[in-house]
Amino acid sequence: MKDLFVRDKTYLLRSSDEINPYNSTCIQKDSQSYFCYYDANNHVLKIYKKTINNEYLNDKSIKINDNFNKVIVHNLDSIILINSKLGEIVMINFKNDTIDSFLISLLLNNIKYKIVVHSYGALAINSEEIVFTIFPSVSLEKFYNFNYELEYSFRSRKIISHFLTFPLNYRYTHWWGGLGNYYEKCKNVEGDIIYSFPMTNNLFMYKRNILTEIKVEKSKYLNNFPPKQIETDSLMSSKYVINFANTTGFYKSLYFDSYHNYYLRVVSHEQSAFKMDSQGYKTQNLYNDRDWSIMIFDLNFHLIGEQIFKGGEFNFKSIYIIPEGIMLAKINENGVDNENFIKLQLFKYKIDEN
Predict the structure, then answer these.
(1) Under 8 Å CB-to-CB from 284, ≥6 apart: which residues?
(2) CA pair distance 219, 323, nearest whole angstrom
(3) CA-atom Rg of the chain in angstroms
């Protein structure tokens, strides 16, 4: 199959920051594109506005109370501030006006939980409720016995449901450390929530309070999947854990492109622990050195195709979805020619031409 994406223009984001992909997203408002980034070190939400010169310039900065350790921009009228340990959630708008606030009890059935927000896909929200991930403070032996998704009603100020366990191939004696102990989700145009687990091929859909497993095609680049489990006795060795994360293939993330009605599943490929550099020396492969790919599914979860990207050029930890296609942040682009900017490469869909 031909390429599913074609490289197009490059946008420049004027910033001296090293953007954390887990704290950034792109949104649209009134046909205007914005790039939003939460600077967790300085507790500032920075909002960049796209100009006609293919640049993103800082349009507004919002100081965030340091009580909140996570910030999610749902849209410019709904910015969610989260204290993940206390369960405190505040919603503000672009003008920094408080829209709503509530406190969710994170003590359920005498078990203490904390809100887990590892990416911009960590929340599913509409005008009626919010769904987020909570992890229990328990030992690993008990960890997989709990539900991890909490659905909360804005109107009733009550928990509606507590659902979703890890798939059956996750167990205390059958696990993959921190690399596998998370999951990604996205919300489709109908409001259904789709879940993707790193070490499970199938997807899961939460629709009208019913959770359904969806069988999908496997990535052609995951040859040994699920991978061999982590050796529990080796967890005390940081060298082992880093090497495991750098070499193991898994499903990284999941997005829904509402502009084109595609599901995008990012696949992190296996790689060897070492490589030979240009001087003939043996060097260690890093996390971003690996090749990776994007699987594209239609609304019925039929695989349209899968395109590979060579490692080392783009940061695949986050994909920015915009009306024109997708943007990928180039690696190590800060400070080029004494300019402080980040390059965002636009890729347009080429599916209709295949």
Answers:
(1) 246, 273, 274, 275
(2) 26
(3) 20
What are the tens digits of pLDDT across the range 55-106? 999 899 999 998 998 898 888 888 999 998 899 999 999 899 999 999 999 9
- The distance of Cα 6 from the centroid of its chain, to the nearest Å, equals 23
Task: Name the residue with tokens 């009733």.
Answer: 156
| Residue bearing tokens 């240009």 | 278
CA distance 65 to 53: 34
**Alpha carbons 136 and 284: distance in angstroms, whole number:** 35
